[in-house]
Specification:
transmembrane, 115 residues, two-stranded antiparallel sheet, membrane, Brnchd-chn_aa_trnsp_AzlD, 2 domains, mainly alpha
Amino acid sequence: MSENHLIWLVILAGAAASYGFRSLPLLVMSRLDLVDSGSDLLRFFDYATYAIIGGIIGSALVSGGELTSAVSDPRLVVGLMTVAATFALCLKLRGNLLPLFAGVGLYQVLSWLAL
């Protein structure tokens, strides 16, 4: 087998594995009955977004096992302001996609103004 064939084989195997991992939740969730509004699974997904945003804030504040000084790094201040605004939008709009795009745009604007 030539080197080019081996490279393509690795690329195709990686693509198949990536597709499999991303489609597995879709296949599993399509079999579940999510009509019941009191479902524990639905309540879990309601809070998952806020847990992820909290994790992002926590990882931004703590680096190397100690609390960072937010005043010393302007990028950190801009990032925390953006995450806080995105979190507020998530709470207000009860969605994920629009606040995500708004947060990315806000971060770009603030980082352009501040840095």
